[in-house]
């Protein structure tokens, strides 16, 4: 029998993160397009973004028929690397453009995110943004293709911190840190050290 879960954060009641989830406003609208395989994943950080950011929208699917509607009347950018991607700190601030800024983020493994782009040509056609090199991800319990590959919540925080500086959105990371600490505690120090290189290391 599964443990009772919080209806809001969907974590077991004993591990509820709601007290740590902030209520932040942003000028930039954030649209999270989540591959269905991530919906029930215990490390679902896109949901933390949607709960902690009032101007965020989380949609789940492989194709999105309403994508033209969501993009309409917005200055839309796709946060995803590519040869033509512009570093996020080089984008003009929202105050200097007439239309609303929209940051679109595919959520899933790198393979699943690429599948979302392939299945949604309008998404793939958006101008792209990429993050500048930064600190390694704190996502210590999930495999990543490179040390600087970030979780969705980390990527959103880094992007918004650049787009809306000097405002900061680091409070979104509080439930994420608690989520990771809880996963490490649940697996035990020996298992964590064996699979992830120890308490102070990453893959």
From TrEMBL:
Residues 2-188 form the DTW domain. SMART domains: DTW (SM01144). Keywords: S-adenosyl-L-methionine, Signal, Transferase, tRNA processing. The keyword tRNA processing applies. InterPro entries: DTW, DTWD2/TAPT. The keyword tRNA processing applies. Residues 1-25 form the signal peptide. Its EC number is 2.5.1.25. It comes from the Bacteria. Pfam families: DTW. Belongs to the TDD superfamily. DTWD2 family. This is tRNA-uridine aminocarboxypropyltransferase. It comes from Pseudomonas benzopyrenica. The lineage of its organism: Bacteria, Pseudomonadati, Pseudomonadota, Gammaproteobacteria, Pseudomonadales.
């Amino acid at each position: 029998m599964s443990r009772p879960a919080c209806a809001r954060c969907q974590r077991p009641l004993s591990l509820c993160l709601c007290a740590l989830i902030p209520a932040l406003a942003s000028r930039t609208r954030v649209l999270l397009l989540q591959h269905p395989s991530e919906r029930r994943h215990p490390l679902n950080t896109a949901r933390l973004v949607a709960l902690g950011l009032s101007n965020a929208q989380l949609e789940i699917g492989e194709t999105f028929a309403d994508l033209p509607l969501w993009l309409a009347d917005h200055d839309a950018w796709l946060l995803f690397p590519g040869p033509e991607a512009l570093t996020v700190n080089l984008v003009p601030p929202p105050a200097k453009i007439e239309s609303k800024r929209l940051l679109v983020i595919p959520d899933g493994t790198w393979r699943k995110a690429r599948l979302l782009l392939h299945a949604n040509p309008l998404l793939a056609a958006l101008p792209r943004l990429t993050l500048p090199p930064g600190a390694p991800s704190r996502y210590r319990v999930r495999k990543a293709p490179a040390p600087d590959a970030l979780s969705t919540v980390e990527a959103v925080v880094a992007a918004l911190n650049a787009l809306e500086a000097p405002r900061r959105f680091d409070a979104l990371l509080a439930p994420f840190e608690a989520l990771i600490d809880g996963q490490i505690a649940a697996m035990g120090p020996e298992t964590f050290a064996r699979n992830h290189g120890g308490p102070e290391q990453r893959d």
